[in-house]
Amino acid sequence: MDIAVSEVIKQAIPEFKIGVILYNHIVVDDSPQMLKGKLQLFQESIYFDLQETAVADILELAEWRRIFKAIGTDPSKYRPSSESLYRRIQKKNFVPTIHSAADVNNFFSLYYKIPIGIYDLDKLEGSVAVEIGTDQDEYIAINGRTVNFSRKLVSKDIHGPFGSPIVDSQRTAVTKDTKNAVQIVYLLPSMTQEQCKKLLQSMQNMFLQIHGGDATLQII
Q1: By the number of CB atoms within 10 A of the CB, which of 3, 59, 124, 206 ranks highest?
Q2: How far apart are CA 109 and CA 168, in angstroms?
Q3: What angle, 0 to 180 degrees and rounded to 10, lies between the N-to-C axes of helices 81-90 and 59-71?
Q4: Global pTM?
């Protein structure tokens, strides 16, 4: 799978990077009790931490807000998905279990405080480009709303936009029928290559432990 980051993004944020993990021959199902328990306990821990720490003061979330501002997105109107998760938990509106792939995604997004998208690879076609969207770029999101991606980070295949660090599309959503998937991990520009590699390997290992199959990863 060919995936590239646009030069416009690199000019706005020279250290911008994403991690890409391709999974093949996986089995997506209800989450095992271990994962459900981890997700619940971690959210409870975050909830208590947020009684003493403001969401705006969390360094990783603040860094992603700066990225949004740098490319022209108002982060108060369109939040990075990782921040949206934290704000949900702050209101004690915990993220429910969905299925094993989504739950792993949400767990690591909370753990590393970064946006992560996961997509059904068989619903994508051609090369993928991560760009700053235009007025023509929009899709029906997994929350059922139509979102326009003008001046927002968006991923596209030959059929158009399908993913973003804000919210992902229904078109490429992972389901229990998914056999092959791709994760796009929106890494922090401040992270070193070694930190990024360690993060991606940890994520890949847990995903394969639960879903089987095999995987390859790269940093772009």
Answers
A1: 124
A2: 14
A3: 130
A4: 0.96
How far, in Å, CA of 116 to CA of 145, rounded? 19
Classify the C-alpha dihedral 100-108-157-136 as positive or negative: positive
Residue 131 DSSP class:
E
pLDDT in tens, 142-193: 999 999 999 999 999 999 999 999 999 999 999 999 999 999 999 999 999 9
Q: List, in order, residues 6 or more apart from 158 with CB less than 8 Å away.
A: 125, 126, 127
CA angle 186, 102, 25 (to 5 degrees): 95
Structure-block tokens of residue 39:
């997700």
Residues 137/160, Cβ–Cβ less than 8 Å: yes
Whole-angstrom Cα distance, residue 124 to residue 202? 25
- At 35, the amino acid letter reads L
**Structure token pair of residue 196:** 């990024």
Where does 50-192 have alpha helices with state H?
59-71, 81-90, 100-112
As a whole number of angstroms, the distance between CA 213 and CA 211 comes to: 7
